[in-house]
Please model this.
Amino acid sequence: MKTRPECDESQRFPGEQISSRPRDAGSDTGESAMTIWNRRAWLYRTGIGAAALAVMRGGALSAFADEPHITISPLNKLSDADEIALGRKFAAQIESEVEIVSNPVIGHYLEGIVSALAAQSQRPNLPYSIKLINSHEPNAFSIPGGFLYLNRGLVELIAEEDELAATLGHEIGHVVARHVVNRLLLSFEARSLLKPVLDNLNKKNGVVEQIIRKLGGALAMLAMLHFSREDEAQADLLGFYEMLRADWDPHGFLELFDQLAQLEKQLGGAPNQFLSDHPPTPERAEAIRRELKRVKIPANARKDSVRFQVFKSTMGLLPTPPKRPAPGGNSSQ
Ligand SMILES: [Zn+2]
Model:
């Protein structure tokens, strides 16, 4: 496995700050509504939290003390609507580059998982969606605005629903923290293309699409964005708390890391972008174990479901993936 790149400071926005404090109600996201998340944070902060949360979660009590609090970089001026518009343009390009699985059982199941996790995220108001890519290459990634993609190869790798929830919670974490959108904006800016992109975000004139194609296509652009270890750690923790609040057992992260470690062993150092970007390192597992000690996992927290097993076996009925370069090879986040 190739060595994971260190944090590229040129891709970090000046002023971008992360803290571990709970987010204040009505804070800086630009969302005017008091969301489910910050209602809960407010309850917690005001001391009503312990009792209220126990009631809200059927006796399950969780602490929010170490959930990353994301602040928006001053250089990211995009409104949520602008970010969604940018995401839609990227999504259209991605879907012209890969084969999307069209299966109502699969689609409905995945949408259910994502909407349950996203509702418990710090950005619950985005129009989250998920599509399955017909590729055996293990991969999952997200783009601005809440558009998630999952390769069937990753589903084939995992055994239980909580591992899938950990994967998707991590990707929602990247959306929440604006990791992709921030890097894309910097990438456009570095090529003096930020102004035409922003000027045409909400126009149907094909300008942004042309720029993406000129830069090699959506997948190639995404492959250029290397997240730092800190970004990945944030996405893990954000996903951890999404899972906990949505009543999944976040031990799923540890099981997912085990599956990735096995894959790494099987591949014996063969290049795989997903592993390169998401190494199952002792540090990632340790961070999750540390968090597990700080929260109470409800006795009835979900680990697996019949629906997951039906979903997984439906994979076997899908047509063979197309023999073109696997999208998972170069676009994982
Ligand atoms: Zn990631």
